[in-house]
């Protein structure tokens, strides 16, 4: 097992990784004096597979436990679900010191994180991510969000967890499509800041897709370290540093919005987005064609789709202009200068944008 | 005019007070580079009296302006209203750099503050408080909140404004009952930390109630300074210092919840709460009976009610135990040691609590 610290002053916390990390949950929470009662937010699949184990770990240590199962889809990030959960939490939180455990993937983490951030102006939050995507990306860094009909992640807060417990023992039960979705975020980390990891992925795609223990531990720890370093420098995405983590996400979110979250996984959507951003990088004279081809080839190695079907180019562009990372009427994209080096650029000409999008449609 | 700074590191901001402060709005916002488009959240009364003036100040300076009128009552702090506002904001916020102006009293400030805090994980917020209560208390310090059926202010965030513009020229149009409500918070500041202000209030109750300009400027500035100092030391109410600002609020919130916000103003409710807390202080041997009598007499001088009618003692106690400031099953009250000195106490015996509550029922 390994402990990676996210250094954020009085909001610092540990990410515990490796096999069996979840068994340490109760002892860690006791040490943090985090409260008396766990309010576990999860989905039906995770509850069925691992719910009993987590409850028993907590109960044996004397914690009160209440479980709230929410739908297993982006629907759980609606304002309706968020407020249903908050009201359920409020109705149960009497004479207790309650903390929230987000037990599931990225959707659960976003929704539970938002609930913990705003209930009583913030109660302690624990992430126990059970998907590869949540372990390498969304459980670390404090972004929480729910969606509006007007766009993805439009409501939220920066709210750091008190601890993240990232046990790779959860991963073998993950459907292959979900593993691939996590791999898209891993490719993102490699592309924006770690050429060594990029090469590792090129050489070990098959091992990772088959949930090889050693390969997974390596990439999970590496991604968490990259994210921790970036978040430490720009926690609230105010300095333009954290923005590079959105590589592929502007187009990706637009695809998710336009397809109402029903056609592509988040990972698939950002795979398209990374390809589009790489094409923008090439067309803007920043990236070598060969590097763009390497990215395309790596995405294909992980059996992630490289062409989205039945999408309207104009709708996609309109959806992007709602992106909360855009400033005023200026568009803003994370582009690559090389494999392992990303920068933020503004005012990409519409012509270049359209041409880049056509390569993924 | 006067500028009071709230020193909170990179979240520091100015409170501009005095007559005519609102005329400086556009220039101040330009200096802050706060955005291009104002989204004004207000109520029908304020909009009718002062809406045109504020819009014209902003438009003349080149700001885009959109106005959202919400109901003039605690109903505006419902999750339904908050999300209606957020969706309206999202639908209008395309190709803009929008900031929120909370233009009204405490309810508007709480609701608009929450909207600004969570929309896109936080956009700039400006408070232009138009009631005495909002000017002396709720516009400063960064507390935002909406209510749940389960209790008042159960959802919210700590979110500081970028500037507060507190123009006493708004106050003469305020109904007398609203002036009194503000006076309850002013009495609170005096009771918990400023014996000199307490004496001033004893001598100038009539002048303040008749909106005497000089008296108002004195008390508004004094209260803002007190609040700024306390918030600077304990922004997120984690160190037990900011907690004293809740003097009278535990019982007060319970009264508001039990009467569904329809019988008493917030100020009236906390007047009862301060009396109950003073009685607890006396019964616990902390406060002199004479000081308790002075507080009772000052509250009566401001024609605030000293007895609530038709309230059930047990319901009131049950509502208090939902208070988010309670820790586990321990109750927690702000009590007085003297006029001008408050401390936090826990585990007040139920017998003392019941006896204290009976004095206001």
Percentage of residues in helical conformation of chain A: 40-55%
What oligomeric state do these chains adopt? homodimer
Residue ranges of chain A: pLDDT <50 for 5 or more in a row?
none
Radius of gyration of chain A: 20 Å
Q: Give the end-to-end Cα distance of chain A, rounded to a whole number of Å.
A: 43 Å
Based on DSSP secondary structure assignment, what is the total number of beta strands of chain A?
11
* Side-by-side strand order of the widest sheet of chain A: 1-2-9-6-5-3-4
- The helix/strand order of chain A is EEHEHEHEHEHEEEHHHHHHHEEH
Strand percentage of chain A lies at: 15-25%
* CA-based shape of chain A: globular
Query: How is the biggest beta sheet of chain A arranged?
Result: 7 strands, mixed
Helix- and strand-based class of chain A?
A: alpha/beta
Largest interface: A-B, 36 and 36 residues
Average pLDDT over all residues of chain A: 94
- How many alpha or pi helices of chain A? 13
